[in-house]
Backbone:
């Protein structure tokens, strides 16, 4: 597990230290404080390499829109890496560094450099990390086109070790859920998926992914008690679909990391204690470290209720308040979460 995270020059952070990190970690704070950026920093330091570098840029749709008639611009270089650097700065010498300390030391360093001594005007990104030891010295290089973009990996990179699953708040692709489902079918975790869905919809009896034309919500179907007709997942609301995505990503992240933006999206406050119980128990059993964000005070209050009902589980959870331009997060352990909730203190 990562016990401490240090970020310098990455996205909105000039510098920030996040510690202590526990089995389950919740980031709270105002808009644009950097909660999602912390998730992306953890993702990058866990994955390393070019794939880790461009994942968040692709997810945020940070692209260079080239002019169709400009021959000097490389139209295939679509990812705009400037937003990964503090101040959106791509000048020579600009860099960021992310370090994760724990049982395994992890680090990523990325610097804007000139291509060579002769090519002094061409910029490259030089990426070094601890995930790929053979690349420590030279690192990997990506050429920055005249338009300011870089080319994403031309093919899907091999699965990282450990597994790193990122569940974004904006959209959930059923094709991706189908891939996760395929990894869990006929495993001990398959039955857990259906049982978990009953937290949100108690009438769920069975779940199935249709094998043909996977790509819309209608291809995930449910059997409900007392109803013979199979029901498309999309007919039951966005909250259940988000919860299914959460469960699939959690169960398939054994031995790795789960990163969830806006973890309580679409969920009623009455199910949040059971949600947290499921997450903590499963993360502990499968050796998954969880990082999540929220804007919901109900989500934090649910952790206080978790502490009252299951104190041994709540001890695995830490809340970090992220404040804009602060060099360190404000930390709340299980007991402090209860005090804050009872006193109606602002922890968001």
Residues:
């Amino acid at each position: 597990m990562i016990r401490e995270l240090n970020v310098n020059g990455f996205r909105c952070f000039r510098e920030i230290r996040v510690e202590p990190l526990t089995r389950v970690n919740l980031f709270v704070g105002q808009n644009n404080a950097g909660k999602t950026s912390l998730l992306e920093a953890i993702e990058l330091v866990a994955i390393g390499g070019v794939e880790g570098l461009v994942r968040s840029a692709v997810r945020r749709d940070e692209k260079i829109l080239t002019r169709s008639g400009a021959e000097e611009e490389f139209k295939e270089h679509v990812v705009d890496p400037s937003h990964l650097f503090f101040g959106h700065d791509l000048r020579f010498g600009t860099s960021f560094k992310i370090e994760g300390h724990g049982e395994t030391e992890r680090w990523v360093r990325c610097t804007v450099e000139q291509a060579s001594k002769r090519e002094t005007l061409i910029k490259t990104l030089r990426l070094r990390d601890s995930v790929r030891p053979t690349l420590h010295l030279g690192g990997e290089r990506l050429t920055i086109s005249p338009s300011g973009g870089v080319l994403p990996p031309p093919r899907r990179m091999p699965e990282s070790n450990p597994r790193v699953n990122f569940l974004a708040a904006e959209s959930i692709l059923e094709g991706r859920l189908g891939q996760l489902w395929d990894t869990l079918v006929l495993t001990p975790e398959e039955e857990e998926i259906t049982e978990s869905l009953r937290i949100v919809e108690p009438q769920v009896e069975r779940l199935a992914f249709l094998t043909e034309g996977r790509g819309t919500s209608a291809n995930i179907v449910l059997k409900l008690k007392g109803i013979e007709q199979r029901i498309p997942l999309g007919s039951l609301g966005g909250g259940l679909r988000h919860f299914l995505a959460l469960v699939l990503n959690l169960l398939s992240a054994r031995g790795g990391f789960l990163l969830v933006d806006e973890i309580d999206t679409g969920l009623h406050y009455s199910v949040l204690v059971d949600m947290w119980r499921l997450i903590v128990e499963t993360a502990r059993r499968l050796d998954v470290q969880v990082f999540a964000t929220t804007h919901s005070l109900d989500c934090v209050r649910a952790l206080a209720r978790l502490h009252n009902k299951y104190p041994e589980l709540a001890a695995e959870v830490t809340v970090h308040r992220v404040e804009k331009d602060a060099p360190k997060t404000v930390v709340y352990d299980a007991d402090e979460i209860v005090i804050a909730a009872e006193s109606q203190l602002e922890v968001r």
Notes: The two ends are 25 Å apart (CA to CA). Residues 214-218 have pLDDT under 50 and may be disordered.
